[in-house]
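in:
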């Protein structure tokens, strides 16, 4: 069910949500967090779809704030989505005009769930310092997605310089399965130390940088990122050892082949993680991610990069 509320206020929206629950039970209780999405208009529907999928594992109230595409006078158009149009959540889309965009925190405050954590998510461009953003300052977790930014490397580097506990990046969630596979491969005989690592893949995909930084920091070895013209995110990881390299090769974005000296090649399904899967991964923890902090603030600066010919 979708309810449009043009030229309204957030207090009226909140009253309507309460009325929906009291009258028809359309909006269930038991939400575990409030997810505030600060999106461009072009990202609203994709963000809502991803949040709806995530809400099936993490029941929540989703508040989407998007700048209106026209008009300069202060005005708020709202839309409430519940039931089949909202997954296991309740979705409120706020399209703000003019001066209302200057203080987005005042827009969302009346709609926040009481005594529930707040997660802020910027699907595309994030503020220079997420923790100092009006909504970010209220949030327990602040999620950016550097892979969708106009300048992915710049956004990732900026986050490294302004990091505050609770900051995270969906590019980090996209390497979780890679980290598990690599850890399992390294822990196999002959148990030799890794001498260096190389991560190859799509030139705009910052997951390469984060995976290389994690490997370099954890193994205390030189780490290099090789940027290619591929469209398949991470395509190849090589861990050099004295007896020969461990190679994880995923040229098609679907299946990774693991090869190492003295062992038969293994093929494992490893499709590129979709937006909803990365968001679900990040919402599984609401405390600061200390490993991500180490990778971002200490490991990233030691990664070297080059572009493949």
């Amino acid at each position: 069910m979708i309810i449009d509320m043009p030229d309204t206020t957030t207090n009226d929206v909140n009253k309507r949500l309460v009325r929906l629950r009291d009258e028809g039970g359309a909006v269930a209780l038991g939400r575990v967090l409030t997810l505030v999405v600060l999106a461009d208009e072009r990202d609203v529907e994709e963000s809502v779809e991803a949040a709806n999928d995530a809400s099936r594992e993490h029941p929540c109230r989703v508040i989407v704030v998007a700048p209106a595409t026209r008009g300069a006078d202060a005005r708020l158009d709202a839309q409430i989505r519940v039931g089949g149009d909202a997954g296991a959540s309740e979705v409120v889309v706020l399209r703000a005009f003019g001066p209302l965009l200057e203080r987005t925190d005042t827009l969302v405050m009346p709609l926040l769930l009481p005594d529930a954590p707040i997660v802020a998510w910027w699907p595309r461009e994030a503020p220079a310092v997420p923790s100092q953003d009006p909504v970010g300052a209220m949030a327990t977790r602040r999620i950016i997605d550097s892979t969708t930014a106009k300048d992915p490397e710049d956004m990732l580097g900026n986050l490294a310089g302004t990091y505050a506990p609770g900051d995270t990046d969906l590019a980090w969630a996209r390497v979780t399965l890679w980290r598990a596979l690599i850890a399992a491969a390294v822990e196999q005989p002959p148990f030799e130390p890794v001498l260096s690592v190389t991560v190859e893949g799509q030139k705009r995909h910052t997951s390469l940088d984060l995976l290389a930084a994690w490997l370099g920091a954890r193994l205390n070895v030189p780490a290099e990122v090789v940027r290619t013209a591929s469209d398949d995110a991470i395509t190849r990881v090589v861990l050099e050892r004295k007896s020969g390299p461990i190679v994880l090769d995923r040229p098609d974005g679907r299946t990774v082949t693991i090869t190492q000296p003295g062992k038969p090649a293994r093929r494992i399904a490893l499709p590129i993680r979709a937006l909803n899967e990365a968001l679900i991964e990040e919402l599984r923890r609401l405390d600061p991610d200390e490993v991500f902090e180490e990778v971002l603030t200490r490991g990233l600066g030691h990664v070297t990069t080059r572009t493949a010919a």
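note: DSSP finds nine helices and 15 strands in the chain.
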